[in-house]
Design a protein that fits this description.
The chain is of the alpha/beta class. The protein is about 45% helix and about 15% strand.
Amino acid sequence: MKIGIMNNPSKTVCDEAAYCGRARFDFLDLTIEGPHANTVDVDRLRPILDSHGLSVVGHTDPCLPHAYPVQGVRKACLFELERCARIFSALGARIMNVHPCYYSPPAMRNDLVAFNIESLKPIVEMAAAYGLTVVLENYKAPFDRVSIFKKILAAVPGLKMHLDFGHANFGLDNHDAFCRELGEHILHVHFSDNRSRADDHMPLGVGTVDWKNAVNALKATGYDGTITLEVFCSDPDMQYNFLDMSRKRVLELWHSS
């Protein structure tokens, strides 16, 4: 099991990678999104990662309308995702996250899941050409339920699941259901806490997630992969304290269960 953190897209990627390394995390969950992480200088970033022994997991912009039912929009998103895939692959990543697309004309919202299935097929094929496995992240309805993920995973060969435990805490199906029903498909996870209402990205133990149960449920699937602490704070000193506290909690629970 490896524990990592995500770069803050409001700061420069290289500075965030150096911070991740100094804080002695195992990997950087590299998100490519605005305002300051739109572009990544691979030649500058790679030596920083190497100097700290950091690996990379790829995280893409959650706002990309990749399933919008206009082919020109889908092609533009696929072009952007391929740009990200080239960067992730060049940095040695093997996993690339994609978020569900919620954009559609109001009269076509009942087809949202079908639109996502259509758009994910070429995305998964494209990413595979760069040695990347695409993982789809759970979030709000309808992508907060096991039945929908079962349908998507069955329809898109090669697609795997990214389970966000914070999202599952305010969704229809909780982390227990996802781990029990889809454990074999989980390839990457995010840990953060909240109060069951919104995506607060709080330190572990501050909100309502039962972390002992969460870790036990994840371990019961046989999972031993990457865990991103998606904990955010505007104060750099407190950010480190929150992340370190969360990491210690995960390690304590992981090795005691």
